[in-house]
Amino acid sequence: MKNASTHLSARLATALLALGLSAAGPCNARAPELRLYVLDCGHATFKDMGGFSDTGEYDGKPGEIAAPCFLVRHPKGDLLWDAGLGDHYNYPKEGSDAAPGVHVTVPVTLIAQLQSLNLTPKSINFIAFSHLHWDHTGNANEFADSVWIMNKLELAAALTLPPPGGVLPETWSAYKTAKTETIEGDYDVFGDGRVMILRAPGHTPGHQVLKLKLQKSGTVILSGDLYHLRTNRLFKRVPVYNTDRADTLASMSRIETIIKNTRGRLIVQHDPRDFQALPKPPAYLETADRAARSAGFPGAAQAAGLPRLIGMINYAARHDLPEILAIYNEVIRNSTAVYTDVELTAERGEAWYDAKIASGFPLMVARDASGITGFGSFGEFRAWPCYRHSVEHSVHVRADCRGLGIGRSLVAELMNRAAAMQKHVMIAGIDADNAASIKLHQSLGFINVGHFHEVGFKFGRWLDLVFLQCRLPATNQSTTVKQTP
Question: 66 and 156, same structural domain?
Answer without folding.
Answer: yes
